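C-alpha cells for chain A. Residues wanted.
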C-alpha cells in the first residue's frame, strides 16, 4: 500500500498490512500506545506486556486486520479493522466492520498519518464488502472526536458505559466510500 510523500522530509509515508513476521514492530507500537494513552483503549496494559511471540502472531492472524503507517523503517502509527467478532457471541452485521486501535505517535501527529491510515482502512473495508464503518471513542476524548467529525464520521447516539470509569464509549459511523470521496478533506 502506498501513502503520500512528506513535503518536509521528501520521504514516502507507506501504509503496510501487518503480517506475522511484523510481530515485533506490532508489539512495540501496541506497548507504546498503551503506555502513552492507556485510558483510550480496551486492552489491559499488564496483559499486553505479558504476551508471548506466539500470542502476538495469533493476534496478527485475526480476526483484526492491522495496518501500520511507516516512513522508512519507522512505524509512526497503526489502525485495525475488525470485520467479524472476536468470539461467536460478538456478532457484527455482514456489511459492517469496526475500526479499532487507531494510534499515532505524538511526534507524527498533525502530519497526515491518521488520514493515510483511514484511507487505507476504508479501501480494505470496501475490498471485504464491509462499507459500514463504526468506531467507539471515550466521551472525554475530545481531540479524537474532532478528528472523526472532520473526516465525516457522525455520532450514532449509541453509548456504552465503561466498566470502572465515569465515562462511556460513544459510537461513530461513516461509510467507507465517504472516507475515500472526502480525500480532499483528508489531505488538508
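Reply:
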Amino acid at each position: 500500500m502506498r501513502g503520500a510523500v512528506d513535503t518536509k522530509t521528501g520521504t514516502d509515508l507507506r501504509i503496510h498490512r501487518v503480517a506475522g513476521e511484523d510481530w515485533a514492530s506490532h508489539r512495540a507500537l501496541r506497548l507504546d500506545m498503551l503506555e502513552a494513552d492507556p485510558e483510550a483503549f480496551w486492552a489491559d496494559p499488564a496483559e499486553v506486556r505479558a504476551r508471548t511471540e506466539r500470542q502476538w502472531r495469533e493476534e496478527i492472524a485475526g480476526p483484526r486486520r492491522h495496518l501500520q503507517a511507516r516512513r522508512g523503517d519507522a512505524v509512526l502509527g497503526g489502525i485495525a479493522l475488525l470485520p467479524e467478532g472476536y468470539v461467536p457471541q460478538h456478532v457484527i452485521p455482514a456489511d459492517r466492520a469496526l475500526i479499532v486501535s487507531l494510534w499515532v505517535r505524538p511526534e507524527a501527529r498533525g502530519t497526515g498519518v491518521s488520514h493515510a491510515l483511514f484511507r487505507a482502512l476504508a479501501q480494505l473495508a470496501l475490498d471485504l464488502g464491509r462499507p459500514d464503518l463504526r468506531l467507539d471513542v471515550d466521551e472525554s476524548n475530545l481531540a479524537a472526536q474532532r478528528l472523526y467529525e472532520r473526516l465525516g464520521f457522525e455520532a450514532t447516539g449509541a453509548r456504552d458505559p465503561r466498566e470502572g470509569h465515569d465515562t462511556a464509549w460513544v459510537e461513530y459511523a461513516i461509510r467507507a466510500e465517504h472516507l475515500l470521496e472526502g480525500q480532499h478533506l483528508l489531505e488538508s
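Helices lie at 23-36, 45-49, 53-61, 113-127, 142-151, 176-181, 183-186. The chain has one domain: 13-186.
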